[in-house]
Amino acid sequence: MVAEGLSGLIMQFVGGWEWIIIIGLIVVVFFGAKKIPELARSFGKATAEFEKARIEAKRELQEMKSEGRVGREKLEAIADSLGIDYTNKNDEELRAAIEVELNKSKQ
């Protein structure tokens, strides 16, 4: 009975804006108000680096396509920069996985 009440209380917060306030309070308690701008800056830099790596990987892939060949080492480097596991994939599967990841991050 207590579990049902707690479950109902939690479900009320899931759909509303209140959960944002709760998460914000938890972040302030754990990190402190002075650390939050630093954490946001770090997150922004990491996001920018990821986006730069994605753009660079796409550019390299386009260059290799225009040359007509792509070496396995280059494919692995691109896959690694995108966070794709390439250990059990052949070249065609790896190319397809890279294309999927590039298209997914566009959206």
Automatic annotation (TrEMBL):
Keywords: Cell membrane, Membrane, Protein transport, Translocation, Transmembrane, Transmembrane helix, Transport. Pfam families: TatA_B_E. InterPro entries: TatA/B/E (IPR003369), TatA/E (IPR006312). It is a single-pass membrane protein. The keyword Transmembrane helix applies. GO terms for cellular component: plasma membrane. The chain crosses the membrane at residues 16-33. GO terms for biological process: protein transport by the Tat complex. Its main location: membrane. It is found in: Cell membrane. NCBIfam families: tatAE (TIGR01411). This is TatA subunit of twin-arginine targeting system. It comes from Nitrososphaera gargensis (strain Ga9.2). The lineage of its organism: Archaea, Nitrososphaerota, Nitrososphaeria, Nitrososphaerales, Nitrososphaeraceae.
